[in-house]
Structures are given as C-alpha cells and as structure tokens.
C-alpha cells in the first residue's frame, strides 16, 4: 500500500463551506475514489493558515492518479474551485509531501 500526503490551500472564510461539501460528498465521487484505489482518505485543516493536509492510501499510485481524467473528478474540481487555490485545469493547487517517518 502506498501512502500519499499533500497540502492544499483554502481561501479565507471558506472553511465551513469546504467541510460541508465534503460532508455531502457526491456518491459518484466517492465511488470514483474507491474505484481508483483510495482508502483511509482524510483531510485535515490547519485553521490559522487555512492549509489542508490530505492523506490517503492506495495500492497503486499511478492507477489512482488516473482519477483526474474522469468526468466526475473534473466536475468536482469545478465545484470546489470557488473555495480554494486552483490550477488552470481547476485541479487544486497542492504540494506533495515526502514521507520521512512511518510507524507501522
């Protein structure tokens, strides 16, 4: 199992709306995540900086990354764009983190 972690960036005063949208995650988006191998997926908020820390586990990172090609993922990105910093393709701007320690 591969572990993936990244940081994303919320706009000011969008914390509650971001949480609400994830509390109401579309069933189609949940299915796409699972079909692409995502499990143990969590997103944490650092309130002072509005940074989001995302963590998930996947059996195959290359297979997981193909989710970005799906219609539902691209639709989700458009839906979330008003809340966070995004790239020109509407994907969230994110910084991949490098694992330096793991206790199994």
Q: What can you tell me about this protein's structure?
A:
Helix content is 32%, strand content 26%. With 104 residues, the protein is of the alpha+beta class. The protein has one domain (2-96): Alpha-Beta Plaits, CATH 3.30.70.100. The chain has a four-stranded antiparallel beta sheet, with no helix packed on it. The longest helix is centred in the last third of the chain and has 10 residues, at 71-80.
Describe what is shown at a glance.
The chain is an alpha+beta fold and 104 residues long. The chain has a single domain, classed as Alpha-Beta Plaits, CATH 3.30.70.100. A hairpin with a 4-residue loop joins strand 2 and strand 3.
> Could you name the CATH class?
Alpha Beta
Helices and strands, in N-to-C order? EHHEEHHE
* Computed Rg: 14 Å
Strand order of the largest sheet: 2-3-1-4
Low-confidence segments: none
- For the report, how would you describe the main beta sheet? 4 strands, antiparallel
Give the % helix.
25-40%
**What percentage of the residues does DSSP assign to strands (E)?**
25-35%
| CATH-derived architecture | 2-Layer Sandwich
CATH topology: Alpha-Beta Plaits
Any idea how many domains?
A: 1
DSSP strand tally = 4
Give the helix tally: 4
Q: Give the CA-based shape.
A: globular
> Average pLDDT value?
98
Please identify the structural class as seen in this structure: alpha+beta
Distance between the termini: 12 Å
């Amino acid at each position: 199992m591969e572990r993936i972690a990244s940081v994303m960036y919320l706009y000011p005063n969008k914390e509650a709306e971001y949480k609400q949208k994830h509390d109401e995650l579309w069933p189609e988006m949940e299915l796409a995540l699972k079909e692409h191998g995502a499990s143990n997926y969590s997103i944490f908020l650092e309130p002072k900086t509005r940074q989001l820390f995302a963590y998930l586990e996947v059996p195959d990172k290359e297979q997981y990354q193909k989710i970005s090609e799906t219609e539902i993922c691209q639709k989700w990105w458009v839906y979330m764009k008003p809340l966070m910093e995004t790239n020109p393709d509407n994907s969230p701007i994110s910084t991949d983190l490098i694992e330096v320690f793991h206790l199994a």
